[in-house]
């Protein structure tokens, strides 16, 4: 029983067919790049995204079909509003990185409401303020709001489905903290009519037919990208954790059926998330966030021009045995978990006349690895659940110098995912559990087979010394721009 997956990332749309043995085949990709008209603004063409969804889904299905179900994975919190009658977006889609609503978030704090600018809530209000300032079109039911999963389901169903899954609803900033439904207090504060909102459905469960595709397969799995990656790496039991190192870095840990106690952020800066919902039961997780990961390698390539390609970073770093006590803090966009300092900035510490190209490149890779250890330690602290091994995917998981540094910084084995992007597998597992391809979460956990395992060799004393040096460097990067450091969402 094969599954068609549509996986919408920040820079493009991927289609694939996943077989019952978890083989990912017939992959097609269409770039859909965001636009930045001004600093802090991130927009995308939702109509072009929909065209790409249809293209990759149709091509993958034609080559690898028939399939029994469709799974959807997506960039989270990106926001779209469209006309229900025509299906035409009323403005640009606003990407999850868009920061135009920082002022609104600060105003809401004065009313005792905490909403982050990277969630959907204030983005939706901003789009309505332009397209429907008096909210009359929304009140009449003429407009529809959705995150990217909603938009994909609407597109594939020919406009028959207006749904979002619980994992995506959980990062909109619009639902109750316990995941029980839309929060009327926040809706009222932002003047958002509930009639505009999609129905919240299970992450794994049959929702409706993909009417525009051959064979009309049922849409049966939906999840935000990090939750899909958590599922895709078999982290379905409490304590299991994965980290995705792409442009940024996200570490997610499965907690289980009991919600983490923190209302917003935990003492160590992690965020409670709905990992998925199945048979109306929520599985919770905690998420730790790194704002700059692969971005730092791109900086070495595009801005400093000391490597020609991202893949070259491993070869260059291998030209030295260590950094010569040079430390790099990857805070190009500030620091997330655990300190949440938006005014922190990237920092090199320990440079000497002998610090050369290999040492700098290695320091950048090791700096990202130490941030990974920050995230892991924070998740363990806030969840109270130890992590025996850390599972890893994302573009940087293919870099052997980085994965070795990550194992040494974390002090535990690193299991590398069999695919670079586990989101596709996760969406397939969610849809497959709904139609019987996989029986349940235990069946998914048993399917985990890492490509390789990197075991640390540094003893605890040396690791502790290196972590202390790293934490000293991180402290020096903090509060570089005090005005930004004062912001807290």
Describe this structure in words.
The structure is a single chain. This protein is α/β, with parallel strands linked by helices and 489 residues long. It is built from 16 helices and 21 strands. It has 2 domains: 3-225, ATPase, nucleotide binding domain (Nucleotidyltransferase, domain 5), CATH 3.30.420.40; 234-416 and 458-489, ATPase, nucleotide binding domain (Nucleotidyltransferase, domain 5, 2-Layer Sandwich). The chain has helices at residues 46-64, 102-109, 121-131, 136-139, 148-156, 166-169, 184-189, 225-232, 294-302, 312-317, 357-383, 400-410, 423-435, 441-446, 460-477, 482-485; strands spanning 3-8, 12-18, 24-31, 43-44, 69-74, 80-83, 93-94, 143-146, 163-165, 199-201, 204-209, 218-224, 241-245, 249-256, 271-278, 281-290, 327-329, 347-349, 390-393, 414-416, 452-454. Helix 11 crosses helix 12. The longest helix is centred in the last third of the chain and has 27 residues, at 357-383. It is globular, with a radius of gyration of 22 Å.
